[in-house]
Amino acid sequence: MRQKIIAGNWKMNLTLEEAIRLAADIKSEASSYRHQVILCPAFPYLLALQNELKGTNIKLAGQNCADRENGAFTGEVSASMLASMSVPYVLIGHSERRIYYHESHEVLKEKMDLSLRYGLLPIFCCGETKDIRIDEKQDAFVEKQLEESLFHLSEDDITKVIIAYEPVWAIGTGLNASPQQAQDMHHFIRQKISARYGVGIAEKIIILYGGSVKPDNARELFSQQDVDGGLVGGASLKADDFKKIIQAV
Ligand code: 13P
C-alpha cells in the first residue's frame, strides 16, 4: 500500500499572522489525520510554522529551490538551506515556475539532483497545458517532462521522489480533471516509471493529483487506483475546505 499524501500549496499568499492561524486551525484536528499532510508556505514562514506544528505529524515543504548549490545568486534559496532548516520536502517544477520563471527541463533536473543530494524529498510537478490536451498530446508531453528531468535518477533516488500531476488547465480554474482523466494520466506515468525502473519501483512511487481539488470532488478523485492523494492550491487556504479534503482520502 502506498502512503497517501495531501499537500497544501499556499503559493504567494497570506501574511505571517494568517499563515500561523491557518496552520493552527489545520493542526487542531491533526490527531484524526490518517495520511501524511504537508503544508507548502512561502519561505519566510517556514521556521515559524515548524514551531507551530511541533509535536504533530504535519510536515513542511519549500515551494521551490535554486538550481545552484550556493553563492552569488541574490534572492534564491538553496536546497541545502532548506535541509539545514530540517524542511523535509520541496516542490520542484510547479507549472507556475515553468511558465512565469521559464524553468526548463535542464534547470529542473539540476533542482532534482540538488534536492536529493541534500536529503530533501522532492515533489516533482508535471502536466500539460490546455492546447496540448485539446490536441490530445498530453501523454507525450508529460513523458518528456519525466524523461528530461527525472529519468536520469538512480533507482535509489527515484524511490524518494513524489510526482504531482497537475494539468495546467485545471489549476485555479475550477475545472478539475475528471477522475477518469486523472486516473488515465497517473496510470500512464506509472507505466513509464515501470518501463524505466521496473514494476516494483513503479508501484511504490506516490503520484498526487493537483488542479481545482475541492471538498466536493476530492473523494472521487482520490479513490482512483493510481491517485495517491492531492496537491491542493486555493482550497488549502481555507482551513475547513482543506480539512474536508484531508478527510476525503
Ligand atoms: P488549485 O487547487 O488552486 O487549482 O491549484 C493547484 C496547484 O497549483 C497546487 O500546486
Summarize the structure.
This protein is of the alpha/beta class and 249 residues long. It contains twelve helices and eight strands.
Overall average pLDDT: 97
> In sequence order, what are the helices and strands, one letter per element?
EHEHEHEHHEHHHEHHEHEH
Biggest sheet statistics: 8 strands, parallel, barrel
Q: Briefly, what CATH class?
A: Alpha Beta
Query: What name is given to the CATH topology?
Result: TIM Barrel
Uncertain ranges: none
- Put simply, the count of helices is 12
- The CA-CA distance between the termini, in Å, is 14 Å
Principal-axes geometry comes out as globular
Q: Which architecture per CATH?
A: Alpha-Beta Barrel
Supply the number of structural domains: 1
| Strand numbers in spatial order across the main sheet | 1-2-3-4-5-6-7-8
CATH homology-level superfamily? Aldolase class I
Q: What radius of gyration results from the CA coordinates?
A: 17 Å
The percent of residues in helical segments reads: 40-55%
Ligands: 1,3-dihydroxyacetonephosphate
The secondary structure category is: alpha/beta
Strand elements, count: 8
Classify the beta-strand content into a percent band.
5-15%
Q: Can you offer a commentary on this structure?
A:
The protein has 249 residues and is of the alpha/beta class. It has a single domain, classed as TIM Barrel (Alpha-Beta Barrel), CATH 3.20.20. It is 43% helix and 14% strand. It is built from 12 helices and 8 strands. It has helices at 16-27, 46-52, 79-84, 95-100, 105-117, 130-134, 138-149, 155-158, 179-197, 199-204, 215-222, 239-248, and strands at 5-9, 36-40, 59-62, 89-92, 121-126, 162-165, 207-210, 229-232. It has an 8-stranded parallel β-barrel with strand order 1-2-3-4-5-6-7-8, surrounded by 6 helices. α11 links the parallel β7 (207-210) and β8. α1 (16-27) packs parallel to α12 (239-248), α7 (138-149) crosses α9 and α11 runs parallel beside α12. The longest helix is centred in the last third of the chain and has 19 residues, at 179-197. It is globular and about 45 Å long. The two termini are 14 Å apart. It binds 1,3-dihydroxyacetonephosphate. The site of 1,3-dihydroxyacetonephosphate has 14 residues, from β8.
